[in-house]
Predict the 3D structure of the following.
Amino acid sequence: MPTELRIVSDDPVDRDGPYLVAPEELERLLPDEPSFRVDQLREWLYDKPVTTTEGMVNLPVALRERLDDNLWPFEVEQVQEADGGRTRKWLFRMPDGPAIEAVLMGYRTRTTLCISSQAGCALGCTFCATGQFGFERNLLAGEIVAQVQWAEASLRNQPMRNSPDHVTNIVYMGMGEPLANYRQVRESLRRLIEVKGMGARRITVSTVGVVPGMRRLADEPWQVGLAVSLHAAEDTLRSSLIPLNDRHPLEEVEEAAQYFFDTTGRRVSIEWTLMDGVNDTDEQADLLAPVARRLDAHINLIPMNPTPLTEDRPSSDDRVEAFRDRLLALGANATVRTIRGQSIDGACGQLRAATDGRTGLTSSR
Ligand code: SF4
């Protein structure tokens, strides 16, 4: 669906490169090339991405060499695989220093890519590895889109067994709070939906409750999904886990989720990471169920991804089941999500924590 907004620059790191300029402005990088060459390059970038310019077979060698240096806005510092090759995780390093992560998960009918929207995060949720780094900077729209295109190019080179050969679903659940980087995240959505041609309904933006951003997203022309990381169903506990709750308490978050549902017709999903003795109690289930029922929301229960340095521990399997069953008995919809990538620091921020030698707590976005 066309949109009149065209956010292009807002460039906090002042860099150029094929993925960093807006697709409509690629000419700027190739002032001496005919327009059909620009179209060919745009096609390589957005329709059939390749990891190196060598693969851009219809471009002249000289042009490929010129593009070589800055084709990607990051370097791939590490790749890890788990779950029999059906989970692939990258650590991307930006030229100005920060590192971000993306995780690709293959399933029988879909491949879901989890991407980062910020380097670090200012919100400091206590259970999150990314939150422990503090905030480095917002990612540019092109840096967000390039994570998707890198994963797509990687899948073309090395498909996952019994999974689609391209990225079918995208979740903004990696490092950072997407709605705290609204302009660039919005522009990345525009490029993915209107230029790359991804279905908006296959993209989910996750938030810990940035209420103004939830309302803005509801008013956008695309029907992307919204996942609200609730993790607690009363304000005292929630504020102790997610400091932002002091500014936007539960009631406000629920109102914004309701506005999103009413405006877009899309139900939000509620994300709930189960931590032993913290938020896996009957009392929390009793408080959560009516919220989910009012919003007609599905609850994704996420067993915590354990690390040796995590203060909070994952709930036992029995407790996870009991929590789910109690929600179901109270008329809420809930499923337990399978954990992927435990052997590769699968939760957001963990690989970065391990690589940079920092203490990582489990992230649970
Ligand atoms: S959970 Fe999300 S919002 Fe909270 S610190 Fe981690 S990345 Fe930031």
User: Anything to note?
Assistant: Residues 23-68 form one domain. Residues 1-11, 357-364 have pLDDT under 50 and may be disordered. Residues 121, 123-125, 128, 130-131, 175-177, 208, 363, 365 surround iron/sulfur cluster (CB under 6 Å). The CA atoms of residues 65 and 73 lie 16 Å apart.
